[in-house]
Each structure stands twice: as structure tokens, then as C-alpha cells.
Design a protein that fits this description.
Helix 7 links the parallel strand 7 and strand 8. The protein is built from nine helices and eight strands. The chain has 259 residues and is α/β, with parallel strands linked by helices. It has three domains: 94 residues, Macrophage Migration Inhibitory Factor; 89 residues, Alpha/Beta hydrolase fold, catalytic domain (Rossmann fold, 3-Layer(aba) Sandwich); 62 residues.
């Protein structure tokens, strides 16, 4: 019967029992076995709390979690193996995360954004929904979409954002994500604004100066309604601020969260 082992420094998880139950139930769903007592009573997860110093890399860092899954031979095909990795990662990260959000960083997004810029993003993503023949073709498409960004000499970095299926490269995202929501856009904007106004935690808004999604007017409107929010503008970045100028972006975020 399937067994799951999770190893982490003691105190990593606030509720190890709940984590173990979620992992076991998720594995059963992925394996697609019937919800019979034989399977429910014998699919289990074990959370091992290790003492400080029991885990370390070369630099001595110990904030690691090791997850091991043992199943019957042939129980998980390639698609199910990937599902285990993805869903277990989300569950473990959620269980190890803070009990509440203490600070918020908004990256080139405000409730009242520029519709033309947002449409350009959708057009770019939908225009390549059938994938690319090669990484080079994908790199050319990105370069045309982001002319302000220096094109990397090698397209290999795009493997982080693309998945290869049946001989073609596809963006690692669900096209339904860009389907127009059914609710009223004006009502949605008002709800987002009110949610930001109601927040009491520190907020940092980062805008790429070259962005066509967040305008200076959108920033002024947001800061007028959420005056306690801090604001940083990256001069050499567009909407994809973190990728356009990662050093400046990281410096702004690290300074904010370190205070």
C-alpha cells in the first residue's frame, strides 16, 4: 500500500497531522483508487520532525523539506507522477507557510489598470496557444513582445516556462486563466479597491516605468485610496518587472520585507 514520508526540521509544520491526512487523501485521488476502507486505512503519510542541524546544504542552510512517496509498481504513470509532485508541493508549501500574511507586494498591478495593456497580454498568450516548434521560435516571440528587454543568447531559460508535449513547446499555464470573467468589471474593480483599503498590513506597489498595464494615473489613484502603501518604480522595467530588471526588483522587495 502507498506510503508517504515527509522530513523537515521540527516546528516547520504547525499541524503535522492535518498535513499527513491531506497528502494521503491527495495520493488516493491521483491514483484513482476507490474510496474503500482497504485503501483509506492503508494509505498513510508520516511527518518526521528532525532536530535542528539534522538537515543542511553546503552553506549550512536547513530550510528544506524532503518528501518521499512509495507506491505499488505501475500505480503512477508519468502524468500521475507529475500530478503528485505539483500537488504535494502546493500542500507542503501551504502547511509550512505563515499562519497569516504580514506584508503584501503588488507587482505592476492595481485595481484600475489599463485595458489596452491587459488585452495585449491576452493576445500574446492566446496567439501561441498551439505551442512552438522550438525554443528558438518561442524566444523570438518573447523578443517581439518585449522589445525593451535584451534577448538572451540562449533560449534554454524558457524551459522554466514551457512544457514539451508531442514534439512542441507549450506555455505552462491554463488557457482558461485568461477567459473573461463573467462578473461586472466595474463591480470587480470596486471590490478590489475596497479589499486594499481594508488591509492593515504594510503594502508595497512596484511598477515598471515602461508598463502599459499600470499607468501613472493608476498609481496615483491607488495611492490616494491606500495612502499608507509604499511605491517603487523601476526605470528599466515594463509589466514583467521581475524579469526585466531582477536586481532592482529583488532589492526593492528585500528591503521592504526585511523591515
Amino acid at each position: 500500500m502507498p506510503m508517504i514520508d515527509v522530513y523537515a526540521t521540527d516546528g516547520t509544520f504547525a499541524d503535522p497531522g492535518s498535513l499527513a491526512q491531506r497528502l494521503a487523501a491527495t495520493l488516493m485521488r491521483i491514483e484513482e483508487v476507490p474510496a474503500l476502507p482497504m485503501f483509506r486505512n492503508n494509505t498513510a503519510a508520516f511527518v518526521h520532525a528532525l532536530p535542528d542541524g539534522a538537515i543542511a546544504n553546503v552553506e549550512g542552510e536547513s530550510d528544506y523539506v524532503r518528501v518521499q512517496v512509495l507506491t505499488n509498481l505501475g500505480a503512477l504513470d508519468r502524468a500521475k507522477q507529475l500530478a503528485v509532485v505539483e500537488q504535494f508541493t502546493d500542500i507542503v508549501a501551504d502547511a509550512a507557510g505563515p499562519e497569516k500574511v504580514t506584508k503584501l507586494v503588488l507587482v505592476d498591478v492595481v485595481p484600475r489598470y489599463e485595458k489596452d495593456g491587459s488585452a495585449r497580454i491576452r493576445d500574446f498568450m492566446f496567439s501561441h496557444v498551439h505551442g512552438f516548434e522550438s525554443l528558438e521560435e518561442a524566444a523570438d516571440a518573447v523578443a517581439a513582445y518585449l522589445p525593451h528587454r535584451t534577448k538572451p543568447r540562449s533560449p534554454q531559460g524558457l524551459k522554466r516556462n514551457l512544457r514539451r508535449r508531442e514534439g512542441r513547446w507549450y506555455w505552462h499555464w491554463d488557457p482558461k486563466f485568461l477567459t473573461a470573467p463573467a462578473d461586472d468589471a466595474f463591480v470587480r474593480e470596486e471590490k478590489l479597491e475596497q479589499a486594499a483599503i481594508d488591509l492593515t498590513i504594510p503594502i508595497l506597489l512596484i511598477r515598471g516605468k515602461l508598463s502599459d498595464v499600470v499607468s501613472p494615473e493608476g498609481v496615483r489613484d491607488f495611492l490616494a485610496k491606500v495612502p499608507r502603501a509604499e511605491f517603487v518604480e523601476l526605470s528599466d522595467a515594463g509589466h514583467t518587472a521581475a524579469g526585466d530588471d531582477n536586481d532592482a526588483f529583488s532589492e526593492a522587495v528585500v528591503q521592504f520585507v526585511s523591515r
